[in-house]
Protein backbone atom coordinates (compact mmCIF):
# COMPACT_ATOMS: atom_id res chain seq x y z
CA UNK A 1 0.00 0.00 0.00
CA UNK A 2 2.80 2.41 0.93
CA UNK A 3 4.56 1.56 -2.31
CA UNK A 4 1.43 2.46 -4.30
CA UNK A 5 1.12 5.75 -2.42
CA UNK A 6 4.75 6.55 -3.15
CA UNK A 7 4.29 5.83 -6.86
CA UNK A 8 1.17 8.02 -6.95
CA UNK A 9 3.08 10.82 -5.29
CA UNK A 10 5.78 10.56 -7.96
CA UNK A 11 3.16 10.46 -10.72
CA UNK A 12 1.45 13.60 -9.41
CA UNK A 13 4.76 15.41 -9.03
CA UNK A 14 5.79 14.47 -12.56
CA UNK A 15 2.48 15.68 -13.94
CA UNK A 16 2.76 19.02 -12.19
CA UNK A 17 6.27 19.35 -13.68
CA UNK A 18 4.88 18.54 -17.16
CA UNK A 19 7.02 15.43 -17.30
CA UNK A 20 4.39 13.48 -19.18
CA UNK A 21 6.48 10.38 -19.81
CA UNK A 22 7.32 9.84 -16.17
CA UNK A 23 3.79 10.68 -15.03
CA UNK A 24 2.21 8.22 -17.45
CA UNK A 25 4.68 5.47 -16.49
CA UNK A 26 3.90 5.84 -12.78
CA UNK A 27 0.15 5.99 -13.38
CA UNK A 28 0.50 2.88 -15.55
CA UNK A 29 2.19 1.12 -12.64
CA UNK A 30 -0.68 1.93 -10.27
CA UNK A 31 -3.54 1.14 -12.67
CA UNK A 32 -6.59 3.23 -13.51
CA UNK A 33 -8.89 1.35 -11.14
CA UNK A 34 -6.98 2.67 -8.10
CA UNK A 35 -6.94 6.33 -9.14
CA UNK A 36 -9.02 9.23 -7.91
CA UNK A 37 -10.93 11.44 -10.32
CA UNK A 38 -8.11 14.02 -10.23
CA UNK A 39 -5.54 11.30 -10.87
CA UNK A 40 -7.54 9.96 -13.82
CA UNK A 41 -7.69 13.46 -15.31
CA UNK A 42 -3.93 13.87 -14.86
CA UNK A 43 -3.33 10.41 -16.34
CA UNK A 44 -5.50 11.26 -19.36
CA UNK A 45 -3.66 14.56 -19.73
CA UNK A 46 -0.25 12.86 -19.78
CA UNK A 47 -1.45 10.37 -22.38
CA UNK A 48 -2.75 13.20 -24.56
CA UNK A 49 0.58 15.03 -24.49
CA UNK A 50 2.33 11.81 -25.42
CA UNK A 51 0.01 11.35 -28.42
CA UNK A 52 -1.78 8.25 -27.09
CA UNK A 53 -5.19 9.35 -28.25
CA UNK A 54 -7.26 6.23 -27.53
CA UNK A 55 -5.85 5.93 -24.02
CA UNK A 56 -6.60 9.61 -23.49
CA UNK A 57 -10.22 9.28 -24.56
CA UNK A 58 -10.75 6.21 -22.36
CA UNK A 59 -9.17 7.82 -19.29
CA UNK A 60 -10.86 11.19 -19.80
CA UNK A 61 -14.24 9.46 -19.91
CA UNK A 62 -13.34 7.58 -16.70
CA UNK A 63 -12.36 10.90 -15.09
CA UNK A 64 -15.70 12.38 -16.15
CA UNK A 65 -17.58 9.52 -14.50
CA UNK A 66 -15.48 9.78 -11.34
CA UNK A 67 -16.02 13.54 -11.06
CA UNK A 68 -19.76 13.04 -11.38
CA UNK A 69 -19.68 10.34 -8.72
CA UNK A 70 -17.76 12.73 -6.43
CA UNK A 71 -20.30 15.54 -7.07
CA UNK A 72 -17.75 17.76 -8.83
CA UNK A 73 -19.79 19.12 -11.77
CA UNK A 74 -17.30 21.81 -12.79
CA UNK A 75 -14.48 19.30 -13.12
CA UNK A 76 -16.78 16.83 -14.90
CA UNK A 77 -17.82 19.58 -17.32
CA UNK A 78 -14.17 20.38 -18.09
CA UNK A 79 -13.50 16.70 -18.82
CA UNK A 80 -16.59 16.58 -21.04
CA UNK A 81 -15.45 19.70 -22.91
CA UNK A 82 -12.05 18.15 -23.56
CA UNK A 83 -13.66 14.95 -24.77
CA UNK A 84 -15.89 16.97 -27.10
CA UNK A 85 -12.95 18.91 -28.51
CA UNK A 86 -10.81 15.82 -28.96
CA UNK A 87 -13.58 13.86 -30.70
CA UNK A 88 -14.28 16.81 -33.01
CA UNK A 89 -10.58 16.97 -33.81
CA UNK A 90 -10.74 13.33 -34.87
CA UNK A 91 -13.63 14.16 -37.19
CA UNK A 92 -16.19 12.40 -35.00
CA UNK A 93 -18.82 15.13 -34.90
CA UNK A 94 -21.66 13.11 -33.24
CA UNK A 95 -19.54 12.07 -30.25
CA UNK A 96 -17.89 15.48 -30.08
CA UNK A 97 -21.16 17.39 -29.96
CA UNK A 98 -22.62 14.81 -27.60
CA UNK A 99 -19.91 15.42 -25.02
CA UNK A 100 -20.15 19.19 -25.45
CA UNK A 101 -23.91 18.93 -24.90
CA UNK A 102 -23.25 17.03 -21.66
CA UNK A 103 -20.88 19.75 -20.53
CA UNK A 104 -23.46 22.43 -21.31
CA UNK A 105 -26.13 20.73 -19.21
CA UNK A 106 -23.74 20.30 -16.29
CA UNK A 107 -22.83 23.98 -16.40
CA UNK A 108 -26.42 25.25 -16.43
CA UNK A 109 -26.91 27.08 -13.16
CA UNK A 110 -23.52 25.95 -11.85
CA UNK A 111 -21.07 28.46 -10.33
CA UNK A 112 -18.89 30.11 -12.97
CA UNK A 113 -15.70 28.19 -13.81
CA UNK A 114 -13.16 27.89 -16.66
CA UNK A 115 -15.33 25.31 -18.43
CA UNK A 116 -17.91 28.04 -19.05
CA UNK A 117 -15.32 29.98 -21.04
CA UNK A 118 -14.34 26.96 -23.09
CA UNK A 119 -18.02 26.23 -23.76
CA UNK A 120 -18.60 29.76 -25.08
CA UNK A 121 -15.58 29.45 -27.37
CA UNK A 122 -16.62 26.09 -28.82
CA UNK A 123 -20.36 26.73 -29.14
CA UNK A 124 -20.43 30.46 -29.97
CA UNK A 125 -17.10 31.96 -31.04
CA UNK A 126 -15.93 29.27 -33.46
CA UNK A 127 -19.34 28.70 -35.14
CA UNK A 128 -19.76 32.47 -35.59
CA UNK A 129 -16.34 32.76 -37.21
CA UNK A 130 -17.08 29.85 -39.55
CA UNK A 131 -20.44 31.38 -40.47
CA UNK A 132 -18.89 34.76 -41.32
CA UNK A 133 -20.50 36.53 -38.34
CA UNK A 134 -17.55 38.30 -36.66
CA UNK A 135 -19.71 40.71 -34.69
CA UNK A 136 -21.37 37.82 -32.85
CA UNK A 137 -17.93 36.28 -32.30
CA UNK A 138 -16.61 39.54 -30.80
CA UNK A 139 -19.56 39.66 -28.39
CA UNK A 140 -18.99 36.06 -27.29
CA UNK A 141 -15.24 36.63 -26.91
CA UNK A 142 -15.80 39.66 -24.71
CA UNK A 143 -18.04 37.56 -22.49
CA UNK A 144 -15.20 35.04 -22.13
CA UNK A 145 -12.84 37.87 -21.10
CA UNK A 146 -15.33 39.19 -18.57
CA UNK A 147 -15.85 35.70 -17.16
CA UNK A 148 -12.12 35.20 -16.74
CA UNK A 149 -11.84 38.50 -14.88
CA UNK A 150 -14.72 37.63 -12.53
CA UNK A 151 -13.31 34.23 -11.58
CA UNK A 152 -9.70 35.48 -11.59
CA UNK A 153 -8.49 33.01 -14.24
CA UNK A 154 -5.79 34.62 -16.43
CA UNK A 155 -5.93 31.75 -18.92
CA UNK A 156 -9.64 32.32 -19.53
CA UNK A 157 -9.07 36.06 -19.90
CA UNK A 158 -6.37 35.46 -22.52
CA UNK A 159 -8.55 32.92 -24.31
CA UNK A 160 -11.15 35.67 -24.65
CA UNK A 161 -8.54 38.17 -25.82
CA UNK A 162 -7.34 35.74 -28.49
CA UNK A 163 -10.89 34.98 -29.65
CA UNK A 164 -11.71 38.68 -29.86
CA UNK A 165 -8.55 39.34 -31.86
CA UNK A 166 -9.41 36.65 -34.37
CA UNK A 167 -12.96 37.98 -34.66
CA UNK A 168 -11.77 41.55 -35.23
CA UNK A 169 -9.47 40.33 -37.99
CA UNK A 170 -12.42 38.66 -39.71
CA UNK A 171 -14.34 41.93 -39.37
CA UNK A 172 -11.60 43.75 -41.26
CA UNK A 173 -10.10 45.44 -38.20
CA UNK A 174 -6.79 43.76 -38.78
CA UNK A 175 -4.51 46.10 -36.84
CA UNK A 176 -6.71 45.92 -33.74
CA UNK A 177 -7.13 42.17 -34.07
CA UNK A 178 -3.45 41.40 -34.49
CA UNK A 179 -2.65 43.65 -31.54
CA UNK A 180 -4.92 41.53 -29.34
CA UNK A 181 -3.33 38.31 -30.61
CA UNK A 182 0.11 39.70 -29.77
CA UNK A 183 -1.11 40.83 -26.35
CA UNK A 184 -2.36 37.36 -25.49
CA UNK A 185 0.81 35.73 -26.76
CA UNK A 186 3.13 38.02 -24.79
CA UNK A 187 1.26 37.02 -21.64
CA UNK A 188 1.51 33.34 -22.61
CA UNK A 189 5.26 33.62 -23.02
CA UNK A 190 5.86 34.20 -19.31
CA UNK A 191 5.08 30.54 -18.61
CA UNK A 192 2.43 31.12 -15.94
CA UNK A 193 -0.44 29.59 -17.96
CA UNK A 194 -1.25 25.91 -18.14
CA UNK A 195 0.24 24.16 -21.15
CA UNK A 196 -3.11 23.36 -22.77
CA UNK A 197 -4.24 26.99 -22.81
CA UNK A 198 -0.75 28.13 -23.90
CA UNK A 199 -0.73 25.65 -26.78
CA UNK A 200 -4.22 26.71 -27.86
CA UNK A 201 -3.18 30.37 -27.91
CA UNK A 202 -0.05 29.62 -29.92
CA UNK A 203 -1.87 27.57 -32.54
CA UNK A 204 -4.84 29.90 -32.97
CA UNK A 205 -2.47 32.85 -33.34
CA UNK A 206 -0.27 31.21 -35.98
CA UNK A 207 -3.32 29.97 -37.91
CA UNK A 208 -4.76 33.49 -37.94
CA UNK A 209 -1.48 34.95 -39.19
CA UNK A 210 -1.45 32.38 -41.99
CA UNK A 211 -5.06 33.12 -42.85
CA UNK A 212 -4.39 36.82 -43.36
CA UNK A 213 -0.98 36.12 -44.95
CA UNK A 214 0.88 38.12 -42.30
CA UNK A 215 3.94 36.07 -43.05
CA UNK A 216 6.38 37.97 -40.87
CA UNK A 217 4.20 37.53 -37.79
CA UNK A 218 3.53 33.91 -38.68
CA UNK A 219 7.25 33.22 -38.88
CA UNK A 220 7.99 34.86 -35.54
CA UNK A 221 5.23 33.10 -33.63
CA UNK A 222 6.11 29.76 -35.21
CA UNK A 223 9.71 30.21 -34.03
CA UNK A 224 8.53 31.02 -30.50
CA UNK A 225 6.10 28.10 -30.46
CA UNK A 226 8.89 25.70 -31.40
CA UNK A 227 11.02 27.17 -28.60
CA UNK A 228 8.18 26.59 -26.14
CA UNK A 229 7.53 23.04 -27.34
CA UNK A 230 11.21 22.21 -26.93
CA UNK A 231 10.81 22.71 -23.17
CA UNK A 232 8.13 19.99 -22.90
CA UNK A 233 8.72 16.27 -22.55
CA UNK A 234 5.80 15.57 -24.90
CA UNK A 235 4.15 17.92 -27.35
CA UNK A 236 0.82 16.23 -28.05
CA UNK A 237 -1.24 17.66 -30.86
CA UNK A 238 0.51 21.02 -30.64
CA UNK A 239 3.75 19.68 -32.08
CA UNK A 240 1.90 18.51 -35.17
CA UNK A 241 -0.05 21.75 -35.50
CA UNK A 242 3.16 23.74 -35.33
CA UNK A 243 4.69 21.32 -37.84
CA UNK A 244 1.97 22.11 -40.37
CA UNK A 245 2.63 25.82 -40.09
CA UNK A 246 6.38 25.32 -40.36
CA UNK A 247 5.80 23.23 -43.49
CA UNK A 248 3.67 26.03 -44.94
CA UNK A 249 6.57 28.42 -44.40
CA UNK A 250 8.96 25.93 -46.01
CA UNK A 251 6.74 25.91 -49.12
CA UNK A 252 6.82 29.71 -49.24
CA UNK A 253 10.60 29.77 -49.03
CA UNK A 254 11.23 27.05 -51.55
CA UNK A 255 12.39 24.36 -49.12
CA UNK A 256 10.02 21.88 -50.74
CA UNK A 257 11.67 18.60 -49.82
CA UNK A 258 11.82 19.71 -46.19
CA UNK A 259 8.20 20.88 -46.39
CA UNK A 260 7.13 17.45 -47.63
CA UNK A 261 9.08 15.63 -44.92
CA UNK A 262 7.59 17.84 -42.20
CA UNK A 263 4.07 17.52 -43.55
CA UNK A 264 4.23 13.74 -43.89
CA UNK A 265 5.42 13.52 -40.29
CA UNK A 266 2.39 15.57 -39.30
CA UNK A 267 0.16 13.10 -41.14
CA UNK A 268 1.74 10.26 -39.19
CA UNK A 269 1.32 12.09 -35.89
CA UNK A 270 -2.13 13.63 -36.35
CA UNK A 271 -4.22 11.50 -38.70
CA UNK A 272 -5.89 9.85 -35.70
CA UNK A 273 -6.11 13.02 -33.59
CA UNK A 274 -6.68 16.09 -35.79
CA UNK A 275 -8.00 15.16 -39.19
CA UNK A 276 -8.25 18.83 -40.23
CA UNK A 277 -4.54 19.40 -39.74
CA UNK A 278 -3.69 16.08 -41.36
CA UNK A 279 -5.73 17.28 -44.35
CA UNK A 280 -3.81 20.55 -44.45
CA UNK A 281 -0.55 18.62 -44.23
CA UNK A 282 -1.52 16.57 -47.29
CA UNK A 283 -2.30 19.78 -49.16
CA UNK A 284 1.17 21.07 -48.28
CA UNK A 285 2.63 17.82 -49.64
CA UNK A 286 0.69 18.40 -52.86
CA UNK A 287 2.08 21.92 -53.16
CA UNK A 288 5.65 20.82 -52.48
CA UNK A 289 5.38 18.11 -55.12
CA UNK A 290 3.66 20.31 -57.71
CA UNK A 291 6.32 22.97 -57.45
CA UNK A 292 9.00 20.33 -58.00
CA UNK A 293 7.13 18.83 -60.95
CA UNK A 294 6.37 15.58 -59.13
CA UNK A 295 3.33 13.92 -60.78
CA UNK A 296 2.27 12.35 -57.46
CA UNK A 297 1.10 15.81 -56.38
CA UNK A 298 -2.36 14.77 -57.61
CA UNK A 299 -2.43 11.89 -55.13
CA UNK A 300 -1.53 14.22 -52.26
CA UNK A 301 -4.35 16.59 -53.23
CA UNK A 302 -6.67 13.57 -53.26
CA UNK A 303 -5.60 12.68 -49.72
CA UNK A 304 -6.33 16.23 -48.60
CA UNK A 305 -9.74 16.11 -50.26
CA UNK A 306 -10.56 12.77 -48.62
CA UNK A 307 -10.06 14.46 -45.23
CA UNK A 308 -12.27 17.42 -46.05
CA UNK A 309 -9.74 19.95 -47.38
CA UNK A 310 -10.64 21.58 -50.69
CA UNK A 311 -7.64 20.83 -52.96
CA UNK A 312 -7.94 24.17 -54.73
CA UNK A 313 -6.21 26.20 -55.95
CA UNK A 314 -3.38 23.65 -56.05
CA UNK A 315 -5.24 21.22 -58.26
CA UNK A 316 -6.06 23.91 -60.85
CA UNK A 317 -2.43 25.05 -60.90
CA UNK A 318 -1.43 21.42 -61.40
CA UNK A 319 -3.72 21.29 -64.44
CA UNK A 320 -2.04 24.41 -65.80
CA UNK A 321 1.37 22.86 -65.18
CA UNK A 322 0.25 19.84 -67.18
CA UNK A 323 -0.58 22.04 -70.15
CA UNK A 324 -4.36 22.17 -69.74
CA UNK A 325 -4.82 25.94 -69.49
CA UNK A 326 -8.47 25.77 -70.53
CA UNK A 327 -9.27 23.07 -67.98
CA UNK A 328 -7.36 24.91 -65.29
CA UNK A 329 -9.29 28.07 -66.11
CA UNK A 330 -12.59 26.27 -65.67
CA UNK A 331 -11.44 24.64 -62.43
CA UNK A 332 -10.25 27.84 -60.83
CA UNK A 333 -13.42 29.71 -61.82
CA UNK A 334 -15.55 27.09 -60.08
CA UNK A 335 -13.15 27.15 -57.12
CA UNK A 336 -13.69 30.90 -56.72
CA UNK A 337 -17.44 30.28 -56.69
CA UNK A 338 -17.23 27.35 -54.29
CA UNK A 339 -15.06 29.10 -51.71
CA UNK A 340 -17.85 31.51 -50.79
CA UNK A 341 -17.77 35.18 -49.83
CA UNK A 342 -14.96 35.21 -47.27
CA UNK A 343 -12.28 37.47 -48.82
CA UNK A 344 -9.47 35.78 -46.91
CA UNK A 345 -10.40 32.34 -48.18
CA UNK A 346 -10.85 33.74 -51.69
CA UNK A 347 -7.47 35.51 -51.80
CA UNK A 348 -5.16 32.55 -52.63
CA UNK A 349 -7.70 31.27 -55.16
CA UNK A 350 -7.81 34.70 -56.81
CA UNK A 351 -4.01 34.80 -56.98
CA UNK A 352 -4.02 31.45 -58.78
CA UNK A 353 -6.90 32.61 -60.98
CA UNK A 354 -4.80 35.51 -62.28
CA UNK A 355 -1.91 33.23 -63.23
CA UNK A 356 -4.20 30.73 -64.91
CA UNK A 357 -6.37 33.27 -66.70
CA UNK A 358 -3.35 35.08 -68.15
CA UNK A 359 -1.95 31.78 -69.41
CA UNK A 360 -5.32 30.86 -70.93
CA UNK A 361 -5.70 34.27 -72.60
CA UNK A 362 -8.79 35.13 -70.50
CA UNK A 363 -7.80 38.66 -69.59
CA UNK A 364 -11.23 39.70 -68.33
CA UNK A 365 -11.09 36.90 -65.76
CA UNK A 366 -7.56 37.92 -64.84
CA UNK A 367 -8.56 41.56 -64.38
CA UNK A 368 -11.50 40.63 -62.15
CA UNK A 369 -9.42 38.34 -59.94
CA UNK A 370 -6.59 40.89 -59.64
CA UNK A 371 -9.06 43.64 -58.78
CA UNK A 372 -10.63 41.56 -56.01
CA UNK A 373 -7.21 40.66 -54.67
CA UNK A 374 -6.26 44.35 -54.59
CA UNK A 375 -9.39 45.16 -52.58
CA UNK A 376 -8.62 42.38 -50.10
CA UNK A 377 -5.03 43.56 -49.72
CA UNK A 378 -6.25 47.11 -49.10
CA UNK A 379 -8.74 45.91 -46.49
CA UNK A 380 -6.33 43.68 -44.55
CA UNK A 381 -2.99 45.30 -45.48
CA UNK A 382 -0.73 42.39 -44.53
CA UNK A 383 2.66 41.59 -46.02
CA UNK A 384 1.63 38.49 -47.95
CA UNK A 385 -1.62 39.89 -49.34
CA UNK A 386 0.10 43.07 -50.52
CA UNK A 387 2.77 41.03 -52.30
CA UNK A 388 0.16 38.81 -53.97
CA UNK A 389 -1.90 41.80 -55.08
CA UNK A 390 1.09 43.64 -56.55
CA UNK A 391 2.26 40.54 -58.44
CA UNK A 392 -1.23 39.93 -59.81
CA UNK A 393 -1.70 43.52 -60.96
CA UNK A 394 1.71 43.55 -62.64
CA UNK A 395 0.98 40.30 -64.47
CA UNK A 396 -2.32 41.64 -65.78
CA UNK A 397 -0.83 44.95 -66.92
CA UNK A 398 1.91 43.10 -68.76
CA UNK A 399 -0.59 40.74 -70.38
CA UNK A 400 -2.58 43.77 -71.55
CA UNK A 401 0.50 45.10 -73.33
CA UNK A 402 1.00 47.92 -70.81
CA UNK A 403 4.62 47.15 -70.02
CA UNK A 404 5.45 50.71 -68.98
CA UNK A 405 2.76 50.61 -66.28
CA UNK A 406 3.59 47.04 -65.33
CA UNK A 407 7.28 47.71 -64.74
CA UNK A 408 7.09 49.63 -61.41
CA UNK A 409 4.33 47.36 -60.13
CA UNK A 410 6.37 44.24 -60.83
CA UNK A 411 9.47 45.79 -59.28
CA UNK A 412 7.46 46.50 -56.13
CA UNK A 413 6.10 42.94 -56.09
CA UNK A 414 9.62 41.51 -56.48
CA UNK A 415 10.82 43.61 -53.58
CA UNK A 416 7.96 42.44 -51.38
CA UNK A 417 8.52 38.77 -52.17
CA UNK A 418 12.25 39.08 -51.51
CA UNK A 419 11.59 40.73 -48.14
CA UNK A 420 9.34 37.81 -47.20
CA UNK A 421 11.91 35.25 -48.26
CA UNK A 422 9.52 33.89 -50.91
CA UNK A 423 12.18 32.91 -53.42
CA UNK A 424 9.95 31.08 -55.90
CA UNK A 425 7.36 33.85 -56.05
CA UNK A 426 10.12 36.43 -56.39
CA UNK A 427 11.59 34.45 -59.29
CA UNK A 428 8.24 34.17 -61.04
CA UNK A 429 7.63 37.88 -60.71
CA UNK A 430 11.22 38.54 -61.79
CA UNK A 431 10.61 36.56 -64.98
CA UNK A 432 7.65 38.82 -65.75
CA UNK A 433 9.81 41.83 -64.95
CA UNK A 434 12.38 40.60 -67.48
CA UNK A 435 9.62 40.41 -70.07
CA UNK A 436 8.54 43.98 -69.30
CA UNK A 437 12.12 45.22 -69.70
CA UNK A 438 12.46 43.46 -73.05
CA UNK A 439 9.20 44.93 -74.30
CA UNK A 440 10.53 48.37 -73.40
CA UNK A 441 13.82 47.69 -75.18
CA UNK A 442 16.05 47.41 -72.10
CA UNK A 443 17.82 44.19 -73.03
CA UNK A 444 20.52 44.45 -70.34
CA UNK A 445 18.03 44.70 -67.48
CA UNK A 446 15.90 41.99 -69.04
CA UNK A 447 18.86 39.62 -69.25
CA UNK A 448 19.83 40.30 -65.64
CA UNK A 449 16.33 39.64 -64.30
CA UNK A 450 15.87 36.53 -66.43
CA UNK A 451 19.23 35.15 -65.30
CA UNK A 452 18.38 35.77 -61.66
CA UNK A 453 15.01 34.06 -62.02
CA UNK A 454 16.56 31.07 -63.80
CA UNK A 455 19.28 30.73 -61.17
CA UNK A 456 16.61 30.71 -58.45
CA UNK A 457 14.58 28.06 -60.27
CA UNK A 458 17.67 25.89 -60.64
CA UNK A 459 18.63 26.33 -56.97
CA UNK A 460 15.12 25.41 -55.79
CA UNK A 461 14.71 22.52 -58.21
CA UNK A 462 11.55 24.17 -59.53
CA UNK A 463 9.52 22.73 -62.36
CA UNK A 464 9.31 24.90 -65.47
CA UNK A 465 7.17 23.46 -68.26
CA UNK A 466 8.72 23.24 -71.69
CA UNK A 467 6.65 24.80 -74.42
CA UNK A 468 6.27 21.33 -75.84
CA UNK A 469 4.16 20.44 -72.79
CA UNK A 470 1.09 22.15 -74.32
CA UNK A 471 -0.71 21.95 -77.61
CA UNK A 472 0.05 25.14 -79.59
CA UNK A 473 -2.97 27.37 -80.29
CA UNK A 474 -4.42 28.21 -83.71
CA UNK A 475 -2.46 25.55 -85.56
CA UNK A 476 0.93 27.02 -84.75
CA UNK A 477 3.88 24.67 -84.95
CA UNK A 478 6.32 24.23 -82.06
CA UNK A 479 8.95 26.23 -83.91
CA UNK A 480 6.46 29.00 -84.68
CA UNK A 481 5.66 29.18 -80.97
CA UNK A 482 9.38 29.55 -80.27
CA UNK A 483 9.63 32.39 -82.76
CA UNK A 484 6.48 34.08 -81.46
CA UNK A 485 7.69 33.89 -77.87
CA UNK A 486 10.93 35.63 -78.84
CA UNK A 487 9.00 38.32 -80.70
CA UNK A 488 7.04 38.94 -77.48
CA UNK A 489 10.34 39.28 -75.65
CA UNK A 490 11.33 42.09 -78.01
CA UNK A 491 13.94 40.21 -80.08
CA UNK A 492 14.83 41.27 -83.63
CA UNK A 493 14.83 38.77 -86.50
CA UNK A 494 18.59 38.50 -86.25
CA UNK A 495 18.46 37.85 -82.48
CA UNK A 496 15.73 35.26 -82.99
CA UNK A 497 17.79 33.52 -85.63
CA UNK A 498 20.86 33.47 -83.39
CA UNK A 499 18.85 32.09 -80.48
CA UNK A 500 17.19 29.34 -82.55
CA UNK A 501 20.17 28.71 -84.87
CA UNK A 502 18.19 29.52 -88.01
CA UNK A 503 18.68 32.12 -90.74
CA UNK A 504 17.02 35.55 -90.81
CA UNK A 505 15.17 34.45 -93.96
CA UNK A 506 13.75 31.44 -92.12
CA UNK A 507 12.65 33.69 -89.25
CA UNK A 508 10.87 35.93 -91.76
CA UNK A 509 9.10 32.96 -93.33
CA UNK A 510 7.98 31.78 -89.89
CA UNK A 511 6.64 35.24 -89.10
CA UNK A 512 4.64 35.36 -92.34
CA UNK A 513 3.02 32.04 -91.45
CA UNK A 514 2.43 33.12 -87.85
CA UNK A 515 0.74 36.40 -88.85
CA UNK A 516 -1.56 34.51 -91.19
CA UNK A 517 -2.50 31.84 -88.64
CA UNK A 518 -3.26 34.19 -85.76
CA UNK A 519 -4.76 36.96 -87.86
CA UNK A 520 -2.42 39.86 -87.09
CA UNK A 521 -0.51 42.32 -89.27
CA UNK A 522 2.28 43.62 -87.00
CA UNK A 523 4.91 42.48 -84.54
CA UNK A 524 3.18 44.47 -81.79
CA UNK A 525 -0.07 42.60 -82.36
CA UNK A 526 1.82 39.30 -82.51
CA UNK A 527 3.56 40.09 -79.21
CA UNK A 528 0.21 40.86 -77.61
CA UNK A 529 -1.16 37.53 -78.87
CA UNK A 530 1.85 35.68 -77.42
CA UNK A 531 1.39 37.31 -74.01
CA UNK A 532 -2.35 36.64 -73.97
CA UNK A 533 -1.73 32.96 -74.74
CA UNK A 534 1.11 32.48 -72.29
CA UNK A 535 3.77 32.11 -74.99
CA UNK A 536 6.80 33.77 -73.45
CA UNK A 537 10.39 32.73 -72.86
CA UNK A 538 10.16 33.93 -69.26
CA UNK A 539 6.70 32.80 -68.39
Automatic annotation (TrEMBL):
One GO molecular-function entry: DNA binding
Alphabetical keyword list: DNA-binding, Transcription, Transcription regulation
GO biological process terms held by the UniProt record: regulation of DNA-templated transcription
Residue intervals of the HTH luxR-type domain: 469-534
Cited CDD domains: LuxR_C_like
InterPro entries referenced in this protein's UniProt entry, alphabetically: Sig_transdc_resp-reg_C-effctor (IPR016032), Tscrpt_reg_LuxR_C (IPR000792), WH-like_DNA-bd_sf (IPR036388)
SUPFAM superfamilies tied to this protein: C-terminal effector domain of the bipartite response regulators (SSF46894)
Domain of life: Bacteria
Family annotation (PANTHER family): DNA-BINDING TRANSCRIPTIONAL ACTIVATOR DEVR_DOSR
Protein name: Response regulator transcription factor
Amino acid sequence: MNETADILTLARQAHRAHDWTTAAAHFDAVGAQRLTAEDLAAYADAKWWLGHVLDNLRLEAAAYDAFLADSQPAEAAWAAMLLGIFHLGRGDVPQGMGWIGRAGRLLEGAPECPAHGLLIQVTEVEPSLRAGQPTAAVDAAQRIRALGTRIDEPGVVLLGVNCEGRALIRAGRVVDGLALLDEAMVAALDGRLGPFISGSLYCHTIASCHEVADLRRMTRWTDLTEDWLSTLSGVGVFGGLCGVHRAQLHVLRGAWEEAERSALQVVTDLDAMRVDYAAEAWYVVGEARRLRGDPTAAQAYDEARARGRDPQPGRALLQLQGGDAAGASTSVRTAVTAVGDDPLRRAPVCAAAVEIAVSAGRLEDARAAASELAQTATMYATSGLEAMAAAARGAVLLAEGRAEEALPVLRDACRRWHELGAAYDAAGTGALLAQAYRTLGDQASAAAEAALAEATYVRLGAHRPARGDTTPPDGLSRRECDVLALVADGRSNREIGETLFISDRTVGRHLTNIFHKIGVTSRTQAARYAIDHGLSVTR
